[in-house]
Design a protein that fits this description.
- By secondary structure, this protein is mainly β.
- The protein has one domain.
- The chain has one helix and nine strands.
- Strands 1, 2, 3, 4, 5, 6, 7, 8 and 9 form a nine-stranded antiparallel β-sheet that branches.
Length: about 150
């Protein structure tokens, strides 16, 4: 066997690895069906800016925050994501996730406040940057931050 043939034999396994390595598959962010996240009197809910109300006149959420957990549904699986660090102030944007879960970076501004005797609603507008299995998507969202005070 000549030197050139021997070198070629070492390249064949490496080339096979390159051919078999498939690119990461894009993921799909699903609507969260009521009951798939936690129930609470205080929550934050985000939906796509392009979302339209469904049959029940509700706009489907894609990310919900209850307490120190964020909920997202990707490829039909619901993930309960921990808050990565304490918020500087209540209602401030935050990041959610862990090494073995999707990561969600929440960024928003408050667009308006509805003051009600039973709790104020803060209307939000911003983006969610979602990273899952090495892929990243940025979604424009609107949302509401609400806490029912029972008044």
């Amino acid at each position: 066997m000549s030197v050139g043939e021997n070198s070629m034999l070492h390249l064949i396994p490496a080339m096979a690895l390159l051919v078999s390595a498939a690119p990461a598959r894009p993921f799909h962010i699903d609507d969260i069906i009521p009951g798939e996240s936690a129930e609470s009197d205080c929550f934050v809910a985000y939906w796509r800016t392009s979302a339209k109300p469904g049959k029940d006149s509700e706009i489907p959420n894609i990310f919900e925050i209850v307490g120190n957990r964020g909920f997202i549904k990707i490829d039909s699986q619901v993930f309960a994501l921990p808050l990565l660090e304490a918020r500087a102030t209540p209602g401030a944007p935050a990041d959610y996730g862990a090494a073995d879960t999707p990561m969600v970076e929440e960024s928003h501004v408050m667009t308006r406040i509805e003051k009600e005797p039973d709790g104020n609603t803060y209307h939000l507008k911003g983006t969610l940057k979602i990273t899952h299995n090495g892929q990243r998507q940025t979604v424009s969202v609107k949302g509401e931050d609400f806490c029912y005070s029972g008044g």
